[in-house]
């Protein structure tokens, strides 16, 4: 990660009322803790959460551990895990290799673009750098 890189988050809403956490930036050892904290916080706040990873780069085990912490929280609270949207092929491959692919429901990113154009969908709030 370059010093100028940051991890950014935005929250929007789908027409069905689900909250969408948009993640943008590079998730690696330096930013995985921020990702984990934000995922868990949003999961706690919202009954139905979608995590849009279409603009995130998840490269290493630290990023996968952040997602696994989210899954463990869903098990602990007896809630359905959040839906992962916009999973890139490299992340899908890593999730399959680690056995995590089947832990989360997934949504194709092209579906999310169609939803955003529908009446009732709210645009995400501006992306803010993780503190």
Polypeptide structure, described:
- With 131 residues, the protein is α/β, with parallel strands linked by helices.
- The chain has four helices and six strands.
- The chain has a six-stranded mixed β-sheet with strand order 5-4-3-2-1-6.
- Helix 1 (32-45) links the parallel strand 2 and strand 3.
- Helix 1 runs parallel beside helix 2 (61-76).
- The longest helix has 16 residues, at 61-76.
- It is globular, with a radius of gyration of 14 Å.
- The chain starts with 7 loop residues before the first strand and ends with a strand.
Q: Which H/E pattern describes the elements? A: EEHEHEHEHE
Mean pLDDT figure: 83
Query: Which percent range describes the beta-strand content?
Result: 15-25%
Number of strands: 6
The DSSP helix count reads 4
Helix content: 25-40%
Oligomeric state as shown: single chain
Terminal residue distance: 16 Å
Instruction: Outline the biggest β-sheet.
Output: 6 strands, mixed
What is the radius of gyration computed over CA atoms, rounded to a whole number of angstroms? 14 Å
**Low-pLDDT segments, ≥5 res:** 111-120, 125-131
Shape: globular
Q: If strands are numbered along the chain, what order do they take across the biggest sheet?
A: 5-4-3-2-1-6
Question: Could you say which structural class the secondary elements and strand pairing correspond to?
Answer: alpha/beta
Quick overview:
With 131 residues, the chain is α/β, with parallel strands linked by helices. It contains four helices and six strands.
Give the helices and strands, then pairings:
Layout lengths: L7 E6 L5 E9 L4 H14 L3 E10 L2 H16 L6 E3 L3 H10 L7 E2 L1 H8 L11 E2 L2
